[in-house]
Amino acid sequence: MKKKKNILFLLTDQQRYDTLSCNGSTQCKTPYIDEVAKEGINFSHAYTPIALCSPSRGSIFTGLFPHNHGQLTNVGDNFNGVFDKNILDKKSWTQVLSDNDYLTGYVGKWHLPREGENKFWGLANWHLYRSYYDELKNMGIEHFYDYHGSHLMDSEWGVSNPPAYGKSGLDYNQMQETWSTDKTISLIEQYKDAENPFMIMTSFKGPHWDYMVPEPYDTMYDPISIEKWGNFDDPFVNKPEIQQKEILRWNAGHLTWKDWQKMIAAYWGYCTYIDSEIGRIIKYLKKMNLYDDTVIIFSTDHGDMIGSHRIFNKGFQMYEETHRIPLIVRDPDSLTPGKVINSFVSHVDLFDTICDYANISNDTKTDGFSLTGLNNNQNSNARDSIFSEFHGYEPCLTSIRMVRTKQWKYVYNPFSVDELYDMESDPYEIHNLAPRIGHKAVLKRMKERMIEWMRATNDDLGRKSRGRVDSFDLVFSMDDNWQP
């Protein structure tokens, strides 16, 4: 009986779709990820269900939208950790694989509750960043950020320009990504001769800020050569003011395009550095004759604004830069290598997809579907729209929802003006058409799509009610018996 396929899941943090050469980047180089795409499937319209670390990872593991898995914000002291227990009664695909005799391991950033708990998450071996920091201390490096820049944005009126970027004070062998790669190879070495297949998930810290990299990646890209983002000079006409307050919150309003060019150059260097580490893992798989027995999944939790619309990081908006993500899957048994699939897909699809690749029948209810059918030309138009949500970030709770088709994007902001963008004629999302009378019909149709999705996925923001307009001007319920 043929051994089941191994699974290697490589996850980055805050990597834009347009940083990959295979996704059209003409400057940022990612040759090893490009190789995976050339031999696998590139999902050109993959979206995160939420552009925030913990909730998006919750969706990756459970196959549920955040409003269903309940990890609505980042773990820890955010809102006193009130959301951190909601996800704990949800099934994860790592548990399913472990229950079906997969050898499991995890490396790197976790950012969910119950970190390191083997039995709960179905992960037998962990290499977490707390171990990395302990190893640095053994090298005499007591305080990580003394060598690797500040973890905070300095004030416009403060000591230095935000954020930290450029050459790290750590050398290549001391970097988190190098450590993560070493530990990944170590797990493969541990599992390679076993009778059972393995699943190893590696979660790199980068290219999340701080954008600090070792040589030669700090000078790999010339800042002057980087063309200005097409939406850098967004005037924010008829848009929610909170987007401009995001600029203020991160003290980024004084940054010129020349400032952003330097950060972007370091960010691209970070992406290429991670790509080279992925290359090390691929070379080891080939050396051990495991490459053609291993499904490789590459993705990220969400993207990064890094100067688009002059915004830093991610937050209270639904722009493409943070929500459209890279997703590439290489199945060694695929009959269509190099295929590009243009249907909309989501993190919530990964649970069923991974179970399919592991040849495991699973009755766990998710909000997604297996992507293997798309590769086999089944359900090739499974989605003609995609949805994302947001619930707040660190000190501020709110609600935002987004629906996107190939032509239109509608953003529902209960607290402010809604947004409607023509994605074909305005791909940089500068002109909000929602307030325009001429687009009322489009707006109505997009609202109908959204409310249908909300009710299909039990999103309380779209629930039916009596005696009032539902959900703050999203829809008016036909069940309302009020008469004028």
Structural class: alpha/beta
End-to-end distance, in Å? 71 Å
Query: DSSP strand (E) fraction?
Result: 15-25%
Principal-axis shape equals globular
Taken in chain order, the helices and strands follow as EHEHHHEHEHEHEEHHEHEEEHHEEEEH
Task: Output the CATH topology of the largest domain.
Answer: Alkaline Phosphatase, subunit A
Helix content: 25-40%
User: What is the averaged pLDDT score?
Assistant: 91
Name the poorly predicted regions: 155-160
Count helical runs. 13
DSSP summary, beta strand count = 15
Features:
484 residues, 4-stranded antiparallel sheet, alpha/beta, Alkaline Phosphatase, subunit A
Write the topology of this structure.
Elements lengths: L5 E8 L17 H9 L1 E7 L5 H10 L3 H4 L23 H7 L3 E6 L9 H4 L3 E4 H10 L26 E3 L8 H16 L6 E10 L3 E3 L28 H8 L7 H31 L6 E7 L19 H4 E2 L1 E4 L8 E8 L3 H8 L14 H4 L10 E8 L2 E9 L3 E5 L6 E4 L17 H17 L28
How does this model look, in words?
The protein is an alpha/beta fold and 484 residues long. It folds into two domains: 6-375, 3-Layer(aba) Sandwich (Alkaline Phosphatase, subunit A), CATH 3.40.720; 405-462. It has helices at 31-39, 53-62, 66-69, 93-99, 118-121, 129-138, 176-191, 242-249, 257-287, 320-323, 350-357, 372-375, 440-456, and strands at residues 6-13, 41-47, 103-108, 125-128, 165-167, 198-207, 211-213, 294-300, 324-325, 327-330, 339-346, 386-393, 396-404, 408-412, 419-422. The strands form three sheets. Strands 1, 2, 3, 4, 6, 8, 9, 10 and 11 form a nine-stranded mixed sheet that branches. Strands 12-13-14-15 form a four-stranded antiparallel sheet, covered by helices on one side. A two-stranded parallel sheet has the order 5-7.
